[in-house]
Request: fold
Amino acid sequence: MTLAQSQDRSTGLPLGPDSLVWTYFADNRMALLGPRAAVLQNMLPSLGQGVEDHSVWFAETLARLQRSIPPIFNTVYGSDEANAGVQVRDFHQNIKGTLPSGERYSALNPDTYYWAHATFIEHLITATDLFIRRLSDAEKEQLFAESITWFARYGVSATGTPTTYAEFCAYWDHALAERLVPHRTAAYGVGYVTKGWPRPKQVPAPVWFLLRRPLNSFSAFITTGGMPERARVLLDLPWDERRERRYQRFAAVCRSLDPAYRRLPGKLRLHPIALRAYSREGRRA
Reply:
């Protein structure tokens, strides 16, 4: 019997210092998968439209990310009794409106809200398996089971959401094949792949001239390589077998460095919110 079969289907597995979600979600190597979760979120029409209508995504993309990440981390690394889940949910209460089709949308619609959560789960599993270490099927099931507890902390209905990892995989595959669109918020989020990054105001023009080509090349490689094939097609992102082979070699090198990486101090490996959570629990990260 697998872990997912033996667990309580409604409550999931606990979060905490011994959970796999805690171990990997705040690992800095999650960034190696690029903006996969954020871009895929915005490819769901209702979510992409909500971002376009109610956020500063286009004017202050980085600022929006900086505001969003801490509450999500505090949901994961909080305790069962004290976490930011309900606060995160309430941020979205007034995010509602009308799609171009005339259909109404709401960020608190369970289907829309779960899709955002699903992209974080899938990003976590994929990035860990690619860049940290290969996960067994049982470990993927465990990560998903822990994500049920994570989602419950938001206080949003879980009716109709996957209850096993197999169901989650089917849900994910169906979303990629049938539900996602190249919404302009998603296209904007990967625009630098083809257009390059604009020069940051604080970087002198001569310095940027030297940095822009390698930076743009690496950013495009990480971003496009980190997207599912279906998303690449929808967003018209350039990729081929040669790039894929390079990407897989890059991932293999990252995995080979994991033993050395784990010997680094926690402050170099993990987000500060995670470090504080481990300290709170009297555990070493």
Remarks:
- The longest strand covers residues 96-98.
- The chain has a mean pLDDT of 91.
